[in-house]
Amino acid sequence: MERQRRPWLNTVQKAEIWKLWREGESLSAIARMLERQPSAVYRVVNRNGGIAPAARTRSARALTLAEREEISRALVADRTMGQIALQLGRSKSTISREIARNGGSHRYRAHEADANAWERARRPKVCALSGNGRLRRLVAARLKLQWAPVQIAGWLRREFRVNKDMQISHETIYRSLFIQARGVLKKELVEHLRTNRTMRQAKSASASGQNRGRIAGAVSISERPAEVEDRAVPGHWEGDLLAGSNNTYIATLVERHSRYVMLVKVAGKDTASVVSALIRQVNKLPKQLRGSLTWDRGTEMASHRNFTIATDVQVYFCDPRSPWQRGSNENTNGLLRQYFPKGKPVDGYSQAELNKVAARLNGRPRQTLQFMNPAEKLAETLGVALTG
Q1: Are 278 and 376 part of one and the same domain?
Q2: In what order do the strands lie in the sheet with 248-255?
Q3: Does the residue 147 lie in any domain?
Q4: Per-residue confidence at 209, pLDDT binned at 50, 70, 90?
Q5: Which of 215-219, 235-239, 277-281, 334-338 has the lowest mean pLDDT?
Q6: What is the pLDDT at residue 190?
Q7: What mean pLDDT do residues 202-215 have?
Q8: Are 213 and 220 in contact (CB under 8 A)?
Q9: 178 and 299, same domain (yes or no)
Q10: What is the C-alpha radius of gyration for the chain, rounded to an integer number of angstroms?
Q11: Whole domain around residue 162: which residue ranges?
Q12: Separation CA 41–CA 25 (nearest Å)
């Protein structure tokens, strides 16, 4: 079956990408937050060398749409250029150029003229290095000596204290390197940078600053109700991914009260695949078994809000590096290695086959349940017979 392509990123999504990038988020983290492929986010950021484009604004000296509408009405009324200029408080040459570049007196339309002016303003501005060959050669030579752009900029300010034309900011050097559309500095010069990066990083970007693995809107396990903690009532689950080789995974769910196990086939580790599979599985449960879900800080649950909306099951997240807070699930994943050994892929199993493995575990007597099995314990609690 042909895979359905997602629509192109729109203007709002691109703006959000740049906002998160400036805040120091990694490309993969941004992709998870927007539920898009990392490659799509990379294309947006890399196209501009990792440097967020400046927000477009109109010059205060430019004609406004309201003024262009006044021009259009005045032309219909057969007023002269001088009269229109006097009416708007503009020079006669400004009005004359405006009308001439937009079709002349008989074809002038205000909205078309305004749109054309906005489009013309998109033309790239001349880079400081572009028109100064001597400065460009000095910068390139120092880059080849492995000088950092900030060192080059500082040296130029000291060496040419009086001549401002021979001074340049380190950001302009980075832009000339990373935004190759400018065609000023050769891309090969990037190899001489200490970091060997191909994109400009945000000032706040760092291994610690990115807070990798952060889940937006995550509710901490410390806020989980006491009835979940003491396993007093059924319907509260612990979840995780069981990993196989070649980036293959199975989602595992364990009910805390009875240790009842469910295995869920997932197409991949991305949050869209995991959450959609969990939604289908959890919505098959009776209402009294849909209480809560406790998960670790894995980003496969980045879309936990979608899961909660679809199932009415609140998700709680463990503290970082605290697997004991999902003890039942950790123990169950250990038992599952009998069926899914490490180093082997786990994507070849159908959901029916996974159900059979879960039934095996649910039929085993458990010491912690006084040697009842999980299926019996949950059935006793609910007063119904459970299978699978």
Answers
A1: yes
A2: 261-265, 248-255, 236-244, 292-295, 314-317
A3: yes
A4: very low
A5: 215-219
A6: 59
A7: 50
A8: no
A9: no
A10: 31
A11: 133-192
A12: 12
Phi, psi of 271 (to 5 degrees): -65, -35
Indicate if 287 and 353 belong to the same structural domain: yes
Model pLDDT, residue 12: 80
214 occurs within a structural domain: no
CATH of the domain at 25: 1.10.10
Q: Which residues contact 59 (CB under 8 A, 6 or more apart)?
A: 121
CB 339 within 8 A of CB 308: no
Residues 186, 305, single domain; the answer is: no
Of all residues in the chain, the percent with pLDDT exceeding 70 is 83
d(CA 365, CA 339): 18
The Cα–Cα gap between 11 and 25 comes to 19
Q: How far apart are CA 346 and CA 250, in angstroms?
A: 7
Choosing from 173, 192, 211, the residue where a domain stops is 192
Judge whether 236 and 257 are in contact, CB under 8 Å: yes
Return the ∠ at Cα 340 (arms to 335 and 343), rounded to 5°.
Answer: 120
* Half-sphere CA count of 275, side-chain side, radius 13 A: 21
Q: What is the per-residue pLDDT for 172?
A: 79
Number of DSSP helices (H) and strands (E) in the chain, helices first: 16, 5
Count other C-beta atoms under 10 Å from residue 84's C-beta: 23
253: in domain: yes
Residue pLDDT, tens place only, 2-48:
444 556 777 788 888 878 877 777 777 787 777 777 778 887 877 76
Whose structure tokens read 């199993």?
349
Instruction: Verify that 187 and 272 share a domain, yes or no.
Output: no
pLDDT at 201: 58
Beta-bridge mates of residue 244: 248
**What is the identity of the amino acid at 6?**
R
Q: Tokens for 35? A: 């539920």
Residue given tokens 């609690």 in the structure block: 381
By the 8 A CB rule, do 329 and 262 touch?
no
Confidence at residue 282, expressed as pLDDT on a 0 to 100 scale = 96
**Pairing between β-strand 236-244 and β-strand 248-255 as defined by DSSP bridges:** antiparallel
List, for residues 132-156, the tens digit of each pLDDT value: 888 888 888 888 888 888 898 899 9
pLDDT of residue 274: 95
Pairing of strands 314-317, 292-295: parallel
Is residue 99 domain-shared with residue 15, that is, in the same domain?
no
Residue 53 lies in a domain: no
Domains in the chain, number: 4
Q: Is residue 276 domain-shared with residue 174, that is, in the same domain?
A: no
pLDDT of the residue at 202: 57
